[in-house]
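Here is one chain, start to finish.
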Amino acid sequence: MPPSPWAAQLQPLINHPQLVTLYPPVAQLLFALAGGSLLGWKLLLLTCDIVTLVLLMALLRRVGQPAALAALYGWHPLAVIEGAASAHLDLAALPLLLLALWLLMPAPSRAAPAAVAGSGLALALAGGIKLVPLLLAPLLLVLLAPGRRWLFALVAAAALLLPAGLFWPELIKGLQTLGQYARHWEFAALPFRLLRALLADGLTARLVLATLLLLILAELLVWLRHTAGQAVALGQAAAVLLLAFALLTPTLHPWYLLYPLVLAPLAPPPVRLAAFVLGWSGLLSYQVMTGFALNGQWQESTRLAAYIFSAPAMALMLALMVALLRRYRRKPI
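Its structure:
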């Protein structure tokens, strides 16, 4: 079917118009729900953000933390800029991610079948909007009772595959775009830049970073098994994993930082501070837009990437030093 005149007018305005979008099926359905209206889309995301704050406060109460900690996300400029201002799709995935966690609280190992099925559905729908939330699936599965894991996995698989059927076989081209993204895309990522310079090979650098992320995931899974399924531990592990993803991904768009930021209130204090600071320093990556607006050149800077990553690294080190000093002072002499 030839493209409509309306689509033909819009296509030159799209980044990489030669590629089929890599946005998952649920994201496409949300675009259709907005009806092609920017105002409608922003109102939809604003509603999602309000639900995110409500669920975040509910999660904090379930793990025994003050609900006021939700302000770390709600009042952060990153959430406002990427939400109401830029209207990035990630805002729609966040409430589903939090819902998947909330349904299993306070004891994932004793969660009822309905809660387990609802959690699998929510996480799969979040992953159908953006793939990042699917990183948390192993953390949830390891804490479920053995008899509940199949239920979670089956519901999640159905929620992923059924919307995908609406876009088949065109979805195959989207998966090809995803492969190009995984092999070639990069933005504002200092670890990737340093590894690529050291190894003289971008693909090897990507594999090293992916391996590091998998090792962190494996360590978190072992740690969770030893916590006997405590709700606090699940929130902390999820926050650490999403922060690790943000620090290790070769492509660090600022809206990716919404994921560790929304779970920062659940994180241990050092990780909480690092995620909060990274949300601020990540906004520096928008500097590339200055040169692009002035002369049409998209030019990134390793020095700018160093600024972005050094801020949360220093915050993390400072928080760890303070924690060690407090522990030392409490020891009897």
